[in-house]
Amino acid sequence: MSNENAQKQIGNIDLVKQLNSAVVYRLIDQHGPISRIQIAEESQLAPASVTKITRQLLERGLIKEVEHQASTGGRRAISIISETRHFHTIGVRLGRHDATVALFDMSGKTLVEARYPVRENTQQEVEKRIIYVIESFINKNQRRLRELIAISVILPGLVDPEQGIIRYMPHIEVDNWPLVKRLKEYFNTFCFIGHDIRSLALAESYFGATRDCEDSILVRIHRGTGAGVIVSNNILLNKRGNLGEIGHIQIDPLGERCHCGNFGCLETIASNSAIESKVQHQLRQGFPSQLALNNCNIHAICLAANAGDPLATEVIRQVGHYLGKAISIAINLFNPQKVVIAGEITEAENILLPTIKSSINTQVLKAFREDLPVVISELNHCSAIGAFALTKRAMLNGVLLQHLLGG
Question: Residue ranges of the alpha helices (H) in 307-340?
Fold first, then answer.
């Protein structure tokens, strides 16, 4: 056998090991308590393989055995569950002017969270700042930190998660920024990177509103409008690493100019700043409202709409109408089982959701809109949970798991 063929064979064996370990760990993590016999049945792996893999996972402290009374009576049966307390990960959500850093255990529980200003505006300076922020956070929380197994970063822009490179950010100039490589070198741990909204959609499927379905679309309204598409429990990504730019569907050809250069993008209507500007404009025109020019941020607008204020209600309805149009296009393309709406505007869900649903009912294929819930995100206030979802995925698909097992 040639050296090259031998290396290929070793590579294939390693991959099979990784995939088999991942199947076993995933079953334990998502369906535990589960017995070894059940794992063998569900995974179609030989009982001897299951025994070997569970022994490795037990020795590494990634799973633990629990006793419970067997349904047949007699001897107490042994089942296995995942162990979530001994391993920690750090999740960072990098915004335009700040970074939220959180410490998670492996169940996705936030143990501590902190926000740091990021006022730097060049790639080099922001990189220095992120490293400083993560290091400060680690030092401050040294006493509660067990084994740090990964650091994940999510951010707005165009990201290549495979290469760990940032191609574009909306507020700073970047040049194929290899942030994952830099963080790995500095912190000597596994690192992952992803788009903030795509990662939130993944988190929602692990711990939030779409736990019960395999295919979903999440749309988040914040500084802009973005979407994440989940198909067969996986975030939809392609070779270019980016899709789901729902905010740049043209809704009104005669509309406002968007920062992308086009006119009338959804983002020019459905973003916090666009909503606030619209209300301010209407107030200056003399429209009656309980809102005042010096107090019409998105939170105040939602509260006013909930209280029946005619101006706030009308503005939220208009946003819902246009959002519904764009979401209808996405539903016709992807036929999801559920649509999730995230962002501050969801505080006015009683006005927003019926308008979105009304658009869907007139614009979506009948078969696609039947039994299609449109719901509010369950993770609206968990800023960095999308970052944790990237680490969770690497455990479930075996990439990080195999590393922890010494493979």
Answer: 310-334
Q: What is the pLDDT of residues 169-183, one digit of tens each?
A: 888 899 999 999 999
The pair of three-digit structure tokens given for residue 226, joined into one six-digit string:
């973005």
**Which pTM was predicted?**
0.91
Quick one: which of 114, 171, 296, 242 has its CA closest to 229? 242
Nearest in space to 119 (alpha carbons), one of 99, 100, 135, 97: 97
**6, two tokens:** 């031998």
Can you name the residues that pair with 151 across neighbouring β-strands? 90, 191
- Distance from the Cα of residue 278 to its chain's centroid: 29
Angle at 231 between CA 227 and CA 189, to 5 degrees: 80
User: Could you give the CA distance from residue 353 to residue 73 in angstroms, rounded to a whole number?
Assistant: 51
Instruction: Give the C-alpha distances (Å, rounded to integers) separating 237 from 92, 156, 202, 227.
Output: 21, 15, 12, 12
Count other C-beta atoms under 10 Å from residue 206's C-beta: 18
- Which two tokens mark 210? 């779409």
Q: Assign 190 a pLDDT band (cuts: 50, 70, 90).
A: very high
Cα separation, 319 vs 269, in Å, equals: 6
d(CA 356, CA 304): 19
362 vs 380: CA distance, rounded Å: 28
Per-residue pLDDT of 106-149, as tens digits, reads: 999 999 999 999 999 899 999 999 999 999 999 999 999 989 99
Q: How far apart are CA 139 and CA 59, in angstroms?
A: 29
Task: Tell me the pLDDT tens digit for each residue of 61-108.
Answer: 999 999 865 555 556 678 999 999 899 999 999 998 999 999 999 999
Q: What element of type H or E holds 115?
A: strand 110-117
